[in-house]
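Researcher: Sequence recovery benchmark, item below. Answer with residues only.
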C-alpha cells in the first residue's frame, strides 16, 4: 500500500474527509461546479470533486475543522489543483469539479426547484421523498441521531413532501441529462412503520418508467416479508444504517433508533435481506443488503468488527466517515484522524473479497459521500491475494453492464410508446 496522498487517491479521499479543504479565491464554486447542498441523512455538506483515478468525493469546506486544513484548492488557468499549505505549496493532485447537471437550475412543472426534489451524490440520484424524520419533531426532547442534520436541512436545501410526479420528473431529467443508473430513496423514522408504504409508489413508477437500479434506505421493518415484496417490485439494494456497532455507544449516539428498534433489529434485517440474495450470485437482477456504519464515532476496532459481522452474513458494508456538521449535536466533536481509519477501510476491502461479495459491479456508480469497497483496494495490504475474485468481478461487470443497458433501452422504449399513446389520446 502506498502511504502518499499524491499517489494513492483513496488515501487522499479519506484524508480530505478527515481534514477538509480550504478554497482559494482563485476558485469560485458557483461558477464551475455543483452548489454546496446539505442534503441526505446529514453526512454530506461539502464540495463535490473528482479525484485522480476517477474517485468522486464530497469534501468538507464549511465546518470549522476545514478552516485548519493543510489542503488548499486553487484554480490555475483551466486546472483545479490541490496544494499543501506549506512553503513551496507542493502540488498534491489535479482534480475536477463534479459537473453541474443541466437540470440543477430548472424547476418541476409544479414550480419546485429540481434540486429540492433530488440531488446527485456523485453520479446517482438521492431522493428523500417524505417529511422530516420524526425523531426531530419529538417534544420536549428530540431523539435524533446526534451526528445528523436532516432536521436542519429540510426547508433549506431539501423540499418537504414531494409528489410521485415531481420525483419522476427529476428522475427522467437526471436519467436523460446526467446518465444516472441508480436512484436511492431514503427516509427517516415515521410512527407506525409507514416508511415502506410511503416509498412503494415511487419505486413502482421509477422501475416501470426507467428500469433504473433502485435502492431503499429506511429503518428495519418488523415484517421482514416486506423485503421480498420490495425485491419483486424491482428494488436492488436495501440499506440499514445502524451507524454504531458498540451496543452502549449505539444507545448514546442514536437514542431514537435505540428506543424504537434497537441494534439487534437492524442486524436481523441485514442478515435476513442478505439471505434473500444468496441464491442469485452475480445476478443480472442484483439484490444487495447493506449495513451502514459511521467510522470515527466508536473505536476503530469496533468499526472493524462491524465490517466483519456484516460481510460474514453476506451483506456489504457502507462506511461513512464522521463529519461534525454545523448545527448538529456533534458539531464540536473533532473529526477522526486519517491514520486511525486506514485500517478500517483496508478491512472493508479485504472482508468483501474474502467473502466473495459482488462489489463494484453496477455501471456508472460513483459515490461521493463514502469510500466504496472497491476503492478501498488502495488501502489494503492484501490486495494481491484476491486475484481470483477480482477476475470474477471483472467478468460480472462486463456481463451486467451489457444486460443492464438492454434493460434500460427496453424500459425507455416502453415509456416512450406509452407517452406517445397518452399524447395521441389527448389530441
Ligand atoms: S434516523 Fe437518525 S440519521 Fe436518520 S434521519 Fe432520523 S435522526 Fe437522522
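Model:
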Amino acid at each position: 500500500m502506498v502511504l502518499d496522498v499524491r499517489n494513492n487517491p483513496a488515501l487522499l479521499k479519506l484524508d480530505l474527509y478527515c481534514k477538509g479543504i480550504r478554497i482559494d479565491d482563485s476558485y469560485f464554486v458557483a461558477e464551475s461546479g455543483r452548489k454546496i447542498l446539505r442534503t441526505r441523512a446529514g453526512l454530506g455538506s461539502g464540495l463535490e470533486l473528482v479525484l485522480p483515478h476517477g474517485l468522486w468525493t464530497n469534501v468538507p469546506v464549511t465546518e470549522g475543522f476545514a478552516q485548519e486544513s493543510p489542503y488548499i484548492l486553487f484554480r490555475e488557468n483551466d486546472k483545479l489543483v490541490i496544494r499543501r499549505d506549506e512553503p513551496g505549496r507542493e502540488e498534491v493532485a489535479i482534480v475536477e469539479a463534479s459537473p453541474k447537471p443541466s437540470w440543477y437550475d430548472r424547476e418541476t412543472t409544479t414550480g419546485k426547484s429540481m434540486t429540492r426534489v433530488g440531488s446527485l451524490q456523485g453520479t446517482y440520484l438521492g431522493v428523500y421523498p417524505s417529511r422530516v424524520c420524526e425523531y426531530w419533531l419529538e417534544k420536549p426532547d428530540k431523539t435524533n441521531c446526534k451526528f445528523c442534520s436532516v432536521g436542519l436541512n429540510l426547508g433549506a436545501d431539501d423540499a418537504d413532501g414531494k409528489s410521485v410526479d415531481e420525483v419522476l420528473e427529476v428522475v427522467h431529467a437526471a436519467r436523460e441529462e446526467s446518465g444516472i443508473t441508480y436512484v436511492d430513496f431514503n427516509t427517516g423514522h415515521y410512527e407506525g412503520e409507514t416508511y415502506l408504504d410511503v416509498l412503494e409508489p415511487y419505486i413502482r413508477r421509477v422501475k416501470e418508467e426507467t428500469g433504473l437500479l433502485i435502492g431503499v434506505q429506511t429503518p428495519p421493518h418488523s415484517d421482514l416479508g416486506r423485503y421480498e415484496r420490495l425485491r419483486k417490485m424491482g428494488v436492488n439494494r436495501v440499506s440499514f444504517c445502524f451507524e454504531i456497532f458498540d451496543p452502549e455507544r449505539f444507545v448514546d449516539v442514536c437514542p431514537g433508533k435505540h428506543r424504537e428498534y434497537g441494534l439487534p433489529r437492524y442486524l436481523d434485517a441485514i442478515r435476513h435481506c442478505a439471505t434473500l440474495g444468496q441464491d442469485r450470485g452475480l445476478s443480472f437482477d442484483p439484490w444487495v443488503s447493506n449495513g451502514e456504519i459511521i467510522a470515527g464515532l466508536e473505536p476503530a476496532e469496533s468499526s472493524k468488527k462491524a465490517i466483519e459481522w456484516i460481510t460474514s452474513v453476506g451483506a456489504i458494508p457502507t462506511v461513512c466517515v464522521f463529519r461534525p456538521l454545523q448545527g448538529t449535536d456533534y458539531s464540536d466533536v473533532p473529526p477522526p484522524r486519517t491514520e486511525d481509519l486506514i485500517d478500517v477501510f483496508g478491512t472493508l476491502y479485504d472482508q468483501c473479497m474474502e467473502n466473495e461479495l459482488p462489489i463494484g459491479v453496477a455501471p456508472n456508480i460513483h459515490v461521493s459521500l463514502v469510500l466504496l469497497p472497491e476503492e478501498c483496494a488502495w488501502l489494503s495490504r492484501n490486495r494481491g491475494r484476491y486475484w481470483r475474485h477480482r477476475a470474477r468481478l471483472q467478468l460480472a461487470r462486463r456481463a451486467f453492464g451489457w444486460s443492464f443497458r438492454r434493460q434500460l433501452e427496453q424500459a425507455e422504449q416502453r415509456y416512450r410508446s406509452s407517452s406517445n399513446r397518452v399524447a395521441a389520446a389527448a389530441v
